[in-house]
């Protein structure tokens, strides 16, 4: 093999698909040149919208006077639910329980009642405050305790998972314990808030620019409220300034309001709420209350688990069904439960309807499982890591591979992940040193924890596991790529472009990434469930495959060679003994009338789910990881520092290691915020008081671990035929932050010489840590 052939082979093997290429918009983010919807040049005659929000948590509307609103200078139109041309509903699941504008009943403080359209945004916002609305107050409850005390209805039918004989085995277990854990919610706090611009077209057509993770749903909802078919609605998304699940369904109302006003007035309309309104009127991560009973033996091996997962869902169902389902799917974390009974309880509350958030219920379920392990460890006086390892899922044939929902765990690498991290983080030596330190330290106490992650990848709604892509090659050899995934900063566009560049063996800058639009790829799924690269990468690969097959057939015929003699090399094509630059090859194919465009499609294989029976294979594969965190707490104030975190995370064969590393680091810090600093609080009138940066604390750069070591498991390769044998990286690393809460718990437990489980709830704010310390002093 000569040197040039060897270099070609190296390029093909490495390829752009597994390279650490920069994010396509990274330089634009840094320089401020990345265009978001609010940066798009405004159309002539653009109008601005504002929301008129309820100031009651639960009440009947007895009278409404909008005359002062309409009379305000610059106001063009004021409309209510009665003015909606189609159906006054923006529910994402067909439940018809989420009115676009409340008409006779308000069910949370901050619910939109009317909309104002004005010449300027300032005029619209000022006018919206002039409404006179009379209410008849009704009983309200804003939290899980209130919902349970008032016999609150459920927003959707709950799910139950059962396997084995949990009642019998609980009774027969050598040791038993009961407990309860509170898990807080979380605000998405994307940098770019919700925004939509609607531009009216001729006949019934309308074009909407929306900051959304689900353009096809926006298309459906806009058609729904305007009473027009989906083919009249075009939705465009170039990029979002963050999404995290908060833009999966919550953009519906802003796009719908803008479209209604645009079609009514014949002028473009923009809705961009300020941060307070955004936080008050849109959903968050679900709060959970977990009640559990555990049966286990003297070694710490779990025999039976019985747990109920109650969730604050808000006033409507939104995505609470699948969120609470996924919490149950991950209530096992990385552990085998021989006998198990799990039930969800999706409770209605008089708060904004909670929605998708990175992990989608999985973090809450997994956190509960780690509490189970912690409880057992303290009850037995053991290191929680030893109890974790004792209860890990086994390898095929061990009899310890079946999940509570009856899916076999066939690709379990968690023992290797944990063993490797335990060694590289020097966990055992550091834990011994920490125990010695705590013995001699009067006020500062330390803790350390190593926790695993096992996260299922796929939408649990089987139909969503499909994607399309559209690929064109132009005469000059440049490539146009469009697919159904949306870019929210996670690097999806870059990864799918890498797939395409790798397929044709061309430089990445030859691939043009274009805005996601319903006009090019129809019936797309939300960019969610960590499946963006899996689905859209495979769809793009399929489109490239079709075009390549045509090109190979053309070359074989033209040059009279076998198909195997047509080889795509870096930026050129070898046909027999002849090498042709890629652009020249494409031009010749064009003149030979070869079709240079294809629509690719992909659907995830092997998955199926029966919710009613609680059985099936909802996940195509699992992603794994582990983190080890050391903390220091001040027992006088409850304040703490995160001294060090070590992470080893499994992304299969990474499509882009640099982007994946960023996703792992960012997910960990966001999870850290959820478990430590971010606290949602409603007052006794049902008002969200943590509705702005001044009252809601996301993590700062100074909150990150002082020593932060992150590695990808480079030896891992997905056993399933995913794109490039990669694994999803969006949601799984979020749960790595559980090690922070567990480490804080150990530090608190040291105050009572580790005799009892501190039962530290989340978020573990300094106040909660201090209260837990005081409880330990009384043990």
UniProtKB/TrEMBL annotation:
Residues 31-139 form the Aldehyde oxidase/xanthine dehydrogenase a/b hammerhead domain. Gene3D superfamilies: Aldehyde oxidase/xanthine dehydrogenase, a/b hammerhead, Aldehyde oxidase/xanthine dehydrogenase, molybdopterin binding domain. One of its GO terms (molecular function) is xanthine dehydrogenase activity. Pfam families: Ald_Xan_dh_C, MoCoBD_1, MoCoBD_2. Keywords: Molybdenum, Oxidoreductase. Its EC number is 1.17.1.4. InterPro entries: Ald_Oxase/Xan_DH_a/b, Ald_Oxase/Xan_DH_a/b_sf, Ald_Oxase/xanthine_DH-like, AldOxase/xan_DH_MoCoBD1, AldOxase/xan_DH_MoCoBD2, AldOxase/xan_DH_Mopterin-bd_sf, Xanthine_DH_Mopterin-bd_su. NCBIfam families: xanthine_xdhB. This is Xanthine dehydrogenase molybdopterin binding subunit.
